[in-house]
Amino acid sequence: MAASREDVKFLSNPKIGLKRKKYCRFRKFGIKYIDYKDTDFLLQFINEQGKLLPRRITGNSLKFQRRVATAVKRARHLGLLPFIGDMLK
Amino acid sequence: MRHYEVTFIVDPVLSGDEVKSTAEHYQKQLKDHGASITAVDEMGLTQLAYQIKRRSSGVYYCIEFATESAEWLGELELGMKRDERLLRFLTVKLDKYGVKYNDDKRNGRIGKKKEAAAAEAAPAPEVIDLDKDKAPAAATEAPNEDEAED
Description:
Order of helices and strands of chain A: HHHH
Oligomer: heterodimer
Strand content of chain A: under 5%
Number of strands of chain B: 4
């Protein structure tokens, strides 16, 4: 008697190790403008040292990664975000 | 019409009146150049992320304006650069999405949704409480009315 798929009990979560597909949140949620004054939002795209996170990690499309980069740079110029930080998050 | 946004940081050492007059000075300059001011956002005294001109805080102002020609913008920026009351400034041209975003933000349609929802949720229980208070009162009144009818 072969057990059907539902009867099989896994020792560990079978979803572990499966990669969730990354997506560009600007494309997905229809965000068209990135405000350089919205620091809390921009914090999602920089690491603890205040460096920009790569596209590899954020999953942004190239178009919006460029816009995020300009927004962060503008915020830095205005003293809203640090050029070099420590323990930002 | 081209839409622009100029953000500048005023020296916090100045008195409150001086800070305001600085902001008004630039608003007046913009108007003199024939720009129509859409909105002035006073972001208030904020801590800077790093020191600028040995100041660790600054008063932020953001003026959004629309103009037909922007040939005078360089002149304005030069004036701002020479102004010792300002720590820093940034002029940005807004695309149509930027204009829409700022408009939505002013009308509370962006970002403050959660706060607005919380504000709506907060008075809501009070209303319910009031109703509850009224409900027993009505219940107590009801028998009285019945008695009166009797």
